[in-house]
């Protein structure tokens, strides 16, 4: 095992995330106890459910403000004091082994950022097919989404300008500025809720995601894309 002192702040943007947040936070407990995580920051955008109570019970630091994932991530990063940052969605659970992979990355590749391997919390052929497509997109195009989490040093985060206050596509925006050469994919999975895919259908949801990404590359304002994304 590669040992490093507590270096990591975990930043989780939330908006009525009570369903997924407990599992997301539970996956961080061992790393907090082992000393990898210095603090967990929940950056909330105005939740009206039990999100804030769940965060307090987990002894997370709360940051509140206007909704919008880009600006929520900004606020969380501004509140963090650790030299490494891990941006994590509230409906994503890092599987066992993530902390060791993060420790190794921090020790061996401090000038690179990293994301985890995408997976959904459903064992089905469409879910596995989507995971393979995402792996190809990351490997070939260097375009992970935020549900793969982003592990990045504070120095590199500041160098590229951090997250921008965008209502959508803030994850694509930051990795484009980072560049594929400074991005690594870690083997442990970031397992995300399949709720949207099950509700809308894998084909419809995937097509909508691809359409929104295409609009972004065509220069359509993120606020308009947000309305299409849903």
Please explain how this structure is put together:
- By secondary structure, the chain is α/β, with parallel strands linked by helices.
- It is 44% helix and 21% strand.
- The protein has 11 helices and 8 strands.
- The chain has helices at residues 21-26, 29-33, 51-57, 69-79, 98-108, 125-141, 154-159, 170-178, 195-200, 202-217, 222-229, and strands at 8-14, 37-44, 61-64, 84-87, 92-94, 113-120, 150-153, 183-192.
- Strands 3-2-1-4-7 form a 5-stranded mixed beta sheet, with helices on both faces. A 3-stranded mixed beta sheet has the order 5-8-6.
Count of the domains: 1
CATH-defined architecture: Alpha-Beta Complex
Strand line-up in the sheet with most strands = 3-2-1-4-7
Secondary structure tally, helices: 11
Classification by helices and strands? alpha/beta
- Mean residue pLDDT: 93
Instruction: Please indicate the percent range of residues in DSSP E strands (runs of 2 or more).
Output: 15-25%
CATH topology: Spore Coat Polysaccharide Biosynthesis Protein SpsA, Chain A
Q: Would you count the extended β strands for me?
A: 8
Shape: globular
């Amino acid at each position: 095992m590669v040992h490093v002192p507590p270096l990591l702040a975990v930043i989780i943007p939330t908006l009525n995330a009570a369903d997924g947040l407990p599992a997301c936070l539970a996956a961080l407990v061992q790393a907090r106890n082992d000393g990898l995580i210095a603090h967990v920051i929940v950056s909330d955008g105005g939740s009206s459910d039990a999100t804030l109570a769940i965060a307090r019970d987990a002894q997370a630091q709360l940051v509140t403000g206007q909704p919008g994932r880009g600006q929520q991530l900004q606020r969380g990063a501004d509140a963090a004091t650790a030299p490494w940052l891990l941006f994590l969605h509230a409906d994503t659970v890092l599987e066992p082994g993530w902390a060791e992979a993060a420790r190794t990355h921090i020790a061996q590749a401090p000038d690179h950022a990293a994301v985890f391997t995408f997976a959904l919390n459903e064992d089905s052929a469409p879910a596995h097919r989507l995971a393979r497509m995402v792996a190809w997109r990351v490997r070939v195009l260097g375009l992970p989404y935020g549900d793969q989490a982003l592990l990045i040093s504070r120095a590199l985060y500041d160098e590229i300008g951090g997250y921008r206050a965008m209502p959508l596509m803030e994850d694509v925006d930051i990795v484009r500025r980072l560049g594929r050469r400074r991005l690594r994919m870690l083997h442990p999975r970031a397992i995300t809720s399949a709720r949207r895919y099950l509700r809308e259908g894998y084909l419809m949801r995937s097509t909508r995601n691809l359409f929104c990404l295409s609009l972004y590359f065509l220069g359509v304002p993120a606020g308009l894309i947000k309305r299409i994304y849903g």
